[in-house]
Amino acid sequence: MHAERGALLDVRDLHVTFTKGGHVVQAVSGVSFTLARGETLGLVGESGCGKSTTGRAVAQVIRPTSGSVRLGDVELTAARSRSLRRERTRLQMIFQDPVSSLNPRRRVRDIVAEPLDIWGLAKGAERARIVDDLLEAVGLDPRLAGPSYPRQFSGGQCQRISIARALAMRPEVLICDEIVSALDVSVQAQILNLVEDLKASLGLTVLFIAHDLAVVKNVSDRVAVMYLGRLCEVATAESLYRSPRHPYTAALLAAVLEPDPRAPRHHAPLQGEPPSPLSPPSGCRFRTRCPNAQARCAEEVPELRELDAGHKVACHFPLERRAA
Amino acid sequence: MSTSGPVAGSHPALLSVGDLRTSFSTPRGTLVAVDGVSFELARGETLGVVGESGSGKTVLARSILGLLPGARTTIEGSVRFDGDELVGASAQAMRAVRGARISMVFQDPMSSLNPVHRVGNQIAEALRVHLKVSRRVAREAAIGLLAQVGIPSPAERARAYPLQLSGGMRQRVMIAIALACGPELLLADEPTTGLDVTIQAQILDLLEDQRRLRQMAMILVTHDLGVVATRTDRVMVMYAGRVVELAPTARLFEHVRMPYTEGLLGSMPRLDEPSHTRLAAIPGRPPDLVTRPAGCAFSPRCPYATAQCHAASPPLVADPADPDHLYACWHPIAAARDLHAPRGADAR
Amino acid sequence: MPEPESHEALDAAVEEAPAPLAERRDPMGATFWVCMGWLGLLAVVAVFAKYLPLQDPNAPNYLDPGANAGPSLGHLLGTDALTRDILSRLAYGARISLVIGIGATAIGIGIGGSLGMLSAYVRGRFDAGVSLVMYSGLAFPAIIAVIAVISFWGRSQWHVILVLGLFSVPLIFRLVRAATLSCATKEYVTAAKSQGATALRVVARDIFPNVAPSLVVYSVFTLGGVIATEGALAFLGFSVLPPTPSWGTLIYDASNDATTNLPLIFAPAIAIFLTLFSLNYVGERFRRRYEPLESRL
User: In the complex, which subunits touch A with 3 or more CB pairs below 8 angstroms?
Assistant: First the structure.
């Protein structure tokens, strides 16, 4: 898939390194992907894999240590503070914790109108109208919700408010960082449907970060799997789930507990724990838990290469393709 | 498909809960968290308790063990464990039961483990409190337990502090503490929530293996229907403090009767569905447990609700065709589901 | 914006109303209002002392009723060794104590509070540097330093205010910095930044309103502390110059004269005690009401 040419978001060789009291943590080590306009890319992985850090680095909330993040034709990593302030608003983030995402001392209508106020985009009646439209678009009654405070709302409703706020500036890209993980199953479904509806009606491009594979599959066109700071596999949702080529992806899929009593029970497909990001294994980082690991895996870092159309894998000994 | 079922032979039930009611007095009024729950658990059986937040599942587990802060809590009803009544039992009697005969594993191991004590000592303490063994014996037994729960280099790890261990390891330590004195019943309250998917599978396998080895009964409390589907004998669905459906696991999934359970299953995204399948979300949210309107608690959100549903609360009754399957609904769903049929309505 | 198709989830959610704001709150309690009453009385006396029917605090009454006279109709608390009316000295002393207290607290909160917020927001080397200075300041034995400064600089009301104010900065800095840190890591701050808000706007709109309740509470506690410290200073002879009365000076007079003039000994001590108790109690009630608000969300 030559998405590079028409890509709205082009991330190349992104590195994010933290130093914590002398220890160096490579949270993100050379991640590259593209997002075409109107596409949803799911970024999935377990805790500590660096997916949230990637999302924040793309949104420039954390400054990347190195690498390039190109939005349209603007290189975000090179932008300096004033132009960065302006360009950043084209990418908006929604976070995991619905409650800490909203300032408890401000009314909902002011929270949602904040971007308009910062940039002086609308005042008075126009501003109120935009806020009302946004609240309605996310399924809240503007007359009741507007003057209220965040503490009067449930988790799901708070996420709706966060979504309304994110949309106030008509961003091009929406980065959702585990937005449904803290919600009950029935509320999750409501929010996922909402995001899908808004994406369709507003023509958004979405980077959807989550650890739940079924949730990611439901909303994504393409999916990228991360492990310990690197991408393992990138493919369309369908081909990733039907025929995973990377052993880690296969193990992840096998570990998912489906609500189906007739599903075959395997014993845990993956033993052991992920290695510490302070000292990741040499070569392929997954090799310590991989059933197929061989000598080459310790010596050479596998690069992400395209096996079939649009299906990229970073593995020296990828799995066989499963028949459709 | 599922676990080794209840131990054969008509022993009386190990745990018999009768009309348990737990309420808290709050500034806004009385909050009834568990409202008349009754069920039985046979020896060696695994019961899954499923519900979302506010369903009362955690309060239920804690009420069985009497682990709720006392001042504003009222527990009524009966909890009979192997013939002994636990509700209203003396503090001494409860202490003898907790940890030794009924153990609990909690959701967040970081806040359940004392951060300033080494994990080996925490396990050893559980042993010494109940079994009155010497320090050395307890320490060695602790190392043995760590090995049983699958922690590598157990002798070394016993000297670690909780902060030095990963989430999965801490949960294993919690399980070791719970199993230390060989309980007959294990209450697991969301033991895998918050853990990675691959670690979840490991922990559930561990619980299953230990359960089978020790012939324990287990109550697995979770919000995740996927967790209960393949690892429980029976499933009990709770909503707003009441039991709304109780059935052997396979029957529950094959023939859902309660619209809430159907709604839960429908709102979960499935791996075998194409992307952008619209989820059948349940509208609205769970009710306020302080002001309980008359009628079925789920009726405001139920697509099949009638006037009867809003007026009166349905009792838990057995399906005439299948007495093991209980539900609380005026209009139970008649048709069995096909688990693998594509979801109704439009794919986007 | 084109209308999204109507779906069940959207329609139903529109009907859900937000919960009403909690109407019932724990009442503040009788003791709270008694304390507020005392503080209110103090404020009134301090501000309107001139208009109250009080004697001149420095005027001698040589003949009637003389020195160390017990309580009488004209002098409700009697007179001191220099035949001055104790009640009016107490009342004017309230004014001095409050002025010093509020002045020093204002300096402490103003400097400590803004530095604390700035430091916690900016982090990095600025934070490390300022924190180092502040922690050294905390470790410093403040009373001794204050005494030394006053000895060199001279006793005057403004000197006392300034010095006490500066020495209350480190503690307030530390408290405000902690409160700001817990705010600044919340995601609504990240959201504001990603919307292009300038640092100033973020601090003013998102951080300050959430730190403000803590600031109020710390102010109240600091006020109590300063009044107590001024009392100690005066007792040691390092506060305002005589004949200006402050409560500590009254105790100093009593101790110097070693008389058995009971009102002179007890009246200022009781006044200080009541004031400190009231401030601490009121501060504690405020803290309990406003801080759990955040965690209840």
Answer: B, C
Check which CATH number belongs to the domain holding C100 and give it.
1.10.3720.10
Inter-chain contacts counted by CB atoms under 8 A, chains A and C? 115
C181 touches chain A (CB under 8 A): no
Would C78 be classed as within a structural domain?
no
Task: Look at residues B277, B259, B232, B285 and name the one whose alpha carbon lies nearest to residue B337.
Answer: B259
The Cα–Cα gap between B157 and B161 comes to 8
How many independent structural domains does chain C possess?
Answer: 1
**Dist CA A85 CA A105 (whole Å):** 25
The DSSP output letter for A68 is E
On whether the CB atoms of residues C234 and C255 are closer than 8 A, the answer is: no
C295 to chain A, any CB pair closer than 8 A? The answer is no
In terms of residue numbers, what domain contains C191?
85-295
B97, B86 Cβ separation under 8 angstroms: yes
Q: What is the DSSP letter of A279?
A: S
The dihedrals phi and psi of A232, each to the nearest 5 degrees, come to -100, -40
Using CB atoms, which residue from A46, A217, A269 is nearest to B271?
Answer: A217
- Give how far A53 is from chain C: nearest CA, Å: 13
The pLDDT value given to residue A4: 47
CB contact under 8 A, B271 and A253: yes
pTM for the full predicted model? 0.84
Q: Is residue C80 part of a domain?
A: no
Neighbouring chains of C at 3+ CB pairs within 8 Å?
Answer: A, B
C35 inside domain: no
Q: In this complex, is the C-beta atom of C13 within 8 Å of any C-beta atom belonging to chain A? A: yes
The predicted-structure confidence for C209-234, as pLDDT tens digits, reads as follows: 889 888 888 899 999 999 888 888 88
In tens, the pLDDT along B277-334 reads 899 888 887 888 888 778 888 988 888 888 888 888 888 888 888 888 999 998 888 8
**C8, C24, C26 member nearest B283 (Cβ):** C8
Helix, strand, coil shares of chain B, percent, nearest 5, are 30, 25, 45
Q: Which residues of C touch B (CB under 8 A)?
A: 7-9, 11-13, 15-16, 24, 26
Inter-chain touch A217–B285, beta carbons under 8 Å? no
Cα dihedral B342→B347→C5→C7 (10° resolution): 20
Q: Is residue C151 part of a domain?
A: yes
